[in-house]
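ARCHIVE CARD
Drawer: 12
Card no.: 0347
Subject: one protein chain, sequence and derived structure
Cross-reference: see card 0346
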Amino acid sequence: MGVALLFAAIALVRSVETSLTSDVLALASARAGEVAADPGAIDDGDPEEEFVQVLDPRGTVVGSSTNVDGEPALAAPTPGSRSTIEAVPFEEGSFLVAAVAGSDGGVVIVGRSLDDVTDARQAMLGGLLLGVPLLTGLVGLLTWALVGRALRPVEAMRTEVERISARALDRRLALPAGDDEIARLALTLNRMLERLEAAQRRQRRFVADASHELRSPLASIRQHVEVAREHPERTDLERLTEVVLEEDARLERLVEDLLLLTRLDEGGPPDAWEQVDVDDLALAEAARLRALAGAQVDTRGVGAGRVTGSRTQLQRVIRNLGDNAARHARARVAIATAERAGSVVLSVDDDGPGIPVAERDHAFERFVRLDEGRSRDAGGVGLGLSIVREIVRAHGGDVSLGDSPLGGLHVEIRLPAA
């Protein structure tokens, strides 16, 4: 503001000075024209404010006002020009000289004092030298007060946020009155705290569920090993080895699932993406299910469909859906792929009990096993659909659950076509 006022003051002084100087020049030119038309009017002006000299074509003074009588030409301008002289015999200060052509080929010059211009400039400079600092200081104080008042709620919010820790995410900021930017900032911060609190709850539940799921196979292994140690004569080594390997495989699958979910949550470096034929993955999964479970898998609906993504992760999606369908199916599983309206649609159906509408969103939560899937021997640990949803979302797609024409669950995945 100070810099702006300084430039404005300089411009104002220059503007006023130019305007007043133009007025003096106009008066001098008019006076010279008057004398050129009527030489007898040579002494009609103010002897303290102006002088008049009439020059012949050779530049010799042939007439002058009384205040410069007997003086040589004080200036030698050409007709129509202007000049400034710093001193005259009868007065101190600068004079502005205008010249007009005379009737006999000579020149009439008239000089007018610039004292009024100088006085006006000095008066303005004195006022501005006092006013600009005062105005700058006043603006600074007003700005300090107004901005401080406006930012006082921000400081209060900062202090309150400073007190909020990971153990007190349920606290919220007081909303300032009004609907300005500060109030909206407080509302946004409160929404952020709600998201952090919800994320913290999910994280704690996730850790607790993961710990519980990890403890189960470890407890099973420990139980069988302790029994074998206390009663070696009644231990079936083959059965013990089978149990340990089975529980170890469960642990390995669980750890792999947890690591995959962690990578997906953190947005870590993705696997190498490539052109993937989803129909090939679907047919390979159908062949695996037929070989392992002996299930009746219908692949007549498998059509061409290509996407861009991670082959490994998309294989994981189809395997999870295939295992889930085979686990709950009574006799039939159907896998279909098709390309529709720029998307590749993958669907997996079974003739099992399905999932009630009210529980379908809940089914995507982590470590959730619905009533028909709660047995650890028959089912997984409740991460299958969670992994499917996270991988599909990472590929820009979506997954939904519905009723299958076979009578059980219908899982549909939509991915952007390559």
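Annotation on reverse: Confidence is low (pLDDT under 50) at residues 372-379. The first helix runs from residue 2 to 37.
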